[in-house]
Amino acid sequence: MNDLKLVLKNIVQRRFSISLTALSVALGVALIAATLSIKKQVEENFKQSSLGYEMIVGAKGSSMQLVLNTVFMLGNPVGNIRYEVYESLKNDRRVALALPYALGDNFQGFKIVGTTDEIFSEFNYKKGKKFALKEGRAFQTDESFLAVLGSEAAKKTGLKIGDKFVATHGLQEETAEGVGHKHEDSPFTVAGILEPTGTTADKIIYTTLKSVWKVHSHELSHQSSFPFGGHPMSESEPEMVHAEHETEDEHHDAHAEHETEDEHHHHVHDENEPMKEDITAVIVKVRSPLFALHLYKNINDGTLAQASIPVNEIKDLFAIVSNVDMLFFAITLLVILVSLIGMMVAIYNSLNERRREIAIMRSLGAHKLRIFNIITLEAGFISFAGTLVGIFLGKAIIWLVGGYVEHTTGVEIAVSLLNPVKLTENFSFPVEIMLILAVPLCGAFAGIIPALNAYRTDVAKNLNPIS
């Protein structure tokens, strides 16, 4: 009988205890496989090295908060900026695309974002990738109370083309007292549903700026500040100009002149055409990477807005949590180490029941080295079986956790056969193959101590009849 058959025979005889040992190894492997896979996918989604834009412009405050709120819809906005900030960016010759975002409402927890129709025709959520409609049509900038839903938002809410829904004030479904009232008098109609993108956009409800302003026309406060570069850029004026502060009298005169002109054209303000109000942020795509730093400095030197570069902010975020990340990874390695030690102890203890069997094998001509190989092979085989089960359990964990992560953060966690993990700057290796190679090898090493004990078995002593 060859060594492998002997190992399998012994495993079958002690299947219950060995199954528990293999399961402990499997749990450790599952934790490592799931942790590394989820970590890799979350980092890829958050770092988004293939962003189709370079900059986010918003209110002064936390730069990271601005990025997390605008790009990933996490947390609350830093604040609001004037619409003229967007207009100034749109007319800047360095800017290829400026896309306004206005937040303030939600439907069943899915945030409603006011923007322009350029988000469907010009905006790249990733390099070379534009939104595609699965059903219906996109809204036009001058339309009101039409909505285009991300795939996840449509799926979870059950809304179909033509359905109407009422927004809730605030950015979460359950809001503070006095904040979460419904805009019953301003229902939205579903005009389109987007194809899945695997980004936060899947859980956003898009509408027009005009719709957001109409809903909040009685709540928005008017500010008297003017944006940086509040006029279109001329060929001889390449930099964004900072407008000088008006005197109080000049502001009043300008305001009075505006009212006179408005009365001349409309006599009274038409509520169906609301004044241009505040927005939350502007997504900016520059014409050339050379302009990005210059524009970034211009905006941040001013007092009315700040510019953030998403890629840099996310790198800083992962730098902050890297120590915690390594600690968690060390804990998962410790779980496997404890499992392997447990396996070593189980095999060592089982030798007391197998010494007579080993002595008989030795008396029939089996060499000490063969006995040593059988024990180490058994440890390696148990570890191998535990690793395979652990990889399967890891996939199950990713599948179970993935839906929750996607729903809460918009980050898609996919279950794939192999998950390459970057080991060096230019080299990646599938974590599953790495575990299949490493854990059984470590298991075989863990079996060396009981194997040495079996190697030294006294044949004459253990062949004596059992009293």
DSSP strand content: 5-15%
Helix and strand succession? HHEHHEEHEEEEHEEEEHHEHEHHEEHHH
> How many runs of DSSP E, i.e. beta strands?
15
Number of helices: 14
Largest sheet: 11 strands, mixed
Overall spatial form: elongated
- The count of domains is 2
| Whole-number mean pLDDT | 78
Structural class: alpha+beta
* Unreliably modeled segments: 220-252, 254-274
State the distance separating the first and last CA atoms: 29 Å
C-alpha Rg, in Å? 32 Å
Helix content: 40-55%
Kindly describe this structure.
The chain is of the alpha+beta class and 467 residues long. It folds into two domains: 3-46 and 322-463, no CATH class; 55-308, no CATH class. Helices cover 51% and strands 15% of the residues. Strands 1, 2, 3, 6, 7, 8, 9, 10, 11, 12 and 13 form an eleven-stranded mixed β-sheet that branches. Strands 4-5 form a two-stranded antiparallel ribbon. It is elongated, with a radius of gyration of 32 Å. The relative contact order is 0.18. Mean pLDDT is 78; it is low at 220-252 and 254-274.
Short characterization:
The chain is α+β, with helices and mostly antiparallel strands. It has two domains: 3-46 and 322-463, no CATH class; 55-308, no CATH class. The chain has helices at residues 3-13, 15-47, 63-72, 83-90, 118-121, 151-157, 209-215, 248-266, 289-301, 310-363, 368-409, 431-446, 448-455, 459-463; strands at residues 55-58, 95-107, 110-115, 124-126, 129-130, 133-136, 146-149, 164-165, 168-169, 188-194, 205-208, 281-286, 306-308, 420-424, 427-430.
